[in-house]
Amino acid sequence: MQKNLSLSIDIGGTSAKYAYVTADGKLTGKDSFPTSGLKNLDEFYQHLLPVIDKAIACGAVNVGLSCPGFIQSDGLCMGGVENLPYLKGVNIPEFLRQHNPSLKVSIMNDGTAAALGEYWLGSGQGSRVLLCITLGTGIGSALILDGRPYLGSHFQSGEIGYSDYSSSEEYLEINYSTLGILRRASELTGEQLDGFAFIQRVRDNDPCCLRLLEDWTEKLGRILANNILMLDPDRVVIGGGISKQSDILIPLLEKHTNRQLPPQYRQLAEIVPARLANDAGLFGAVKPFYETGMDA
């Protein structure tokens, strides 16, 4: 039996991924259960509890969860879970401790978990001030200071996707998330493009997609530049599926970010692609259990 084994659960809008994670960063037994289409919290727990019980039988003593939304220090989800409305106002760790009082349970925002995972085992290793940006359906972010996530006074830091907010229909991630760019590309080309098709058109020098890519990275470069001026990070990690196209994305982000910075700030923050892909949140959610003095 593995000593100090953890079960990690990354709750998303369509499914919850889970796996076992060891203190030395080994991940095994990866699987998932659906979260979309569930009618209420009871249905969610009907999927969750068998996973918990099996993990306990396998020797897991910790459960780390990552979840969208605003998570208080006591584990309460205050909101920000529009795709999973049955989780609003719910304290999953409290429920699981009632189910098994000996179980150590923690929960954190999914963006924070991904950033901690990259800090622990990925592209953020060795960073003192780490800014992580995730490009996908929305635009998420998290700040890690000396290995600790900065959560803000109201546990709502990292909502960079709401930058340039002017109304509920006009803010950064509406048009400049990966989803927003693909929607705009599909409208301009008259074809339904996914990420692979968009990148292939970029590689084929399609003028429409090249212009969109330039607009995208210029806008993101402005956001990164503003955050670099405020936070002075030593590294910026870019995550999300698009980060796999780092040969295209990273040089353009570097160019536009540095162009929009005063000379003395240019090149100070290294901009790198994420290394752990979709497993970053699984690693990050359980990292606190492997820190000396962790109080679960």
Distance between the termini: 22 Å
* CATH homology superfamily name of the largest domain: ATPase, nucleotide binding domain
**Which structural class fits the helix and strand makeup?**
alpha/beta
Reading the helices and strands in chain order gives: EEEHEEEHEHEEEHHHHEHEH
- The share of residues in helices is 25-40%
Q: What's the β-strand tally?
A: 12
Describe the sheet with the most strands. 5 strands, mixed
Structure, briefly:
The chain is an alpha/beta fold and 296 residues long.
Key features of this structure:
296 residues, alpha/beta, Nucleotidyltransferase, domain 5, five-stranded mixed β-sheet, 9 helices, 12 strands, 37% helix, 22% strand
Question: Can you offer a commentary on this structure?
Answer:
The chain has 296 residues and is an alpha/beta fold. It has two domains: 121 residues, 2-Layer Sandwich (Nucleotidyltransferase, domain 5), CATH 3.30.420.40; 149 residues, Nucleotidyltransferase, domain 5 (2-Layer Sandwich), CATH 3.30.420.40. It has nine helices and twelve strands. A five-stranded mixed β-sheet has the order 3-2-1-4-7, with helices on both faces. A five-stranded mixed β-sheet has the order 10-9-8-11-12.
